[in-house]
Amino acid sequence: MAELHPLLQVLLLQAGYNTIVVMLGAAALGAATGVVGVFAMLRRRALVADAVAHATLPGVALGFILAVALGFSGRNLSFLLSGAALTAVLAALSIQWIANRTRLTEDTAIASVLATFFAFGIVLLTVIQTLKTGGQAGLDIYLLGATAGMLREEAITLALFAIAVALIVALLFKELTLISFDADYARAHGFPVRLLDLAILALVLVVVVIGLRIVGLVLIVALLITPPAAARFWSDHTGRMTVVSGAIGAFSAYFGAAISAISPDTPTGAVIVLVAFFLLLASIVFGTARGLLVRAIGARNLRRAA
Amino acid sequence: MISFLQIDLPAMLVGTLAALVCALIGNFLVLTRQSMLGDAMGHVVLPGIVIAFVLAGTTATWVMLTGAFAAALFSAMLVEFFRRVARIEASAALGSVFTAMFALGVLLLERTGVARTTFDVHHILFGNIETAIWPAATGVASLFDPTALASLPPQLGRLAFGLAVVALVVVLLFKELRVISFDPDFARTVGIPPQIIGAVVVTLAALAAVVSLSAVGAILLVAMMVCPPATARMLTDDLKTQVWLSLLFALASGVFGYAIAVLVPLAFGYEISLGAAGTIAVLSGLFQLVAMLFGLKRGLPKLT
Hints:
The structure holds two protein chains of two kinds.
Chain A: H1 6-11, H2 17-42, H3 46-54, H4 56-69, H5 77-101, H6 106-130, H7 141-144, H8 152-171, H9 173-181, H10 183-188, H11 193-215, H12 220-231, H13 238-262, H14 268-286, H15 292-305
Chain B: H1 2-31, H2 36-56, H3 61-85, H4 90-111, H5 114-117, H6 121-126, H7 146-150, H8 154-172, H9 174-182, H10 184-189, H11 194-216, H12 218-233, H13 239-267, H14 276-294
Helix pairs in contact in B: 1-8, 1-11, 1-12, 1-13, 2-3, 2-4, 2-11, 2-12, 3-4, 3-11, 8-11, 11-12, 12-13, 12-14, 13-14
């Protein structure tokens, strides 16, 4: 098999054991974001997710500071991710408060919360840089993501979380679909729309936080937006769309992680996002439900019939 | 005094000018529900700057401006294509394009090696106001000495140019901007084309993003395009007052933010200094928080 292209070798899981685990972990993450993203998109929460993702930075930094202060390693995953989740929740609540209680519109609420939280994270990072402790460099990977140096346990944790997310979506599938297409109808029939919206937001939070390690907080939102946008071109049926979106997310993350594994100087998050974007472009043209080609053929047949 | 002129004054000026130009055009983004456009601009400009630098081999102002503008224009066209031809929902169209452009920028930075020589991706994200220095300053007299002034950091000239252009257009088109901000339907009936004025706003936002990005970083420009205008909107209904107030808050964020980041720790003898761009942005967010809690106009009916 020595004559195989290195990328093919990695894709076919012939790279080292660690790389394989990491790529599968990435694929699980991509599947989870693709699945959750469908409902985030349908409920128009895509850009809220962007703000929430950026808002994890101060949490990661505070987690680092707390871990060091308590004598743990600054790279302790549970401290970093708990901190990330905490400030992300705070950001989500802030956006809701601003949009509901002031006359500022939701886009202004999202943008100002995103900017302020992220900026606070940056200030904390500059403080950390002056601390006399090791491990600062480890924080960098949470910005743009990296698979290099990822531990097997981390990858397995990610995969478990991803599976849990997929299970929750499967359990709530009927309710989530209903509020996505007709929230008023759902409300009239006694479905807890607010609670279900909250569930979507919670799932977004979970995938964002577990995605920080691989894709990074600047670009993780792309995995919530781009695969669902691509999936819409393949099916109008929500169930099929969710499956396609999960598959596109998984493939993007898997393929991106593979490219990043074989070539130096390729930030994992950026490559994954670009793969997803190419799949979106391809879906726009070739998608069987509403792709440009299908629509063009449909329009021609219509003219001929007339 | 000399170290203030050489190190602190240029950095403070860069931060404050960027804050002013972004806040000025930000007023119209906030009123037309395009606040996320600032965020998008901060991301899409990156690949343009990198490609322009790689092709031309220089960071000259016009090269950076051309590259960044080309990237902003290309992204705007791509978003429009996604929305109108492919019929992707607006926020998904915006989100998928600006993340892909930023990813392309990051990848190009690392792959071309530019990240190690010219642009640090951290500086693009976080800003690096502190590199704006003015070694030619030898005393207060340098402020009036043309040769010393000529060696001011180049990003200052870029920012001043951007601010002048944005201010000029805002003054000239103020009536039109007011009408499309509050009542686009009325604009059409009195013969003001909302699309054209809208395109002008987007172009000015791109210009503000371009002159700010490499000088102060993406986060400061995003914060400044939304926080000072949002703060001002909590305090007044009058557009002219809102614009002036937003500039005041931008100015205060720039000056006090830099002071808190760099001068205060120094004055108390601490070794640490905070990142100035981040501190300025956080301060503008705190102003907004206070205004949202106590502002006179915070809870009036939302715009329709």
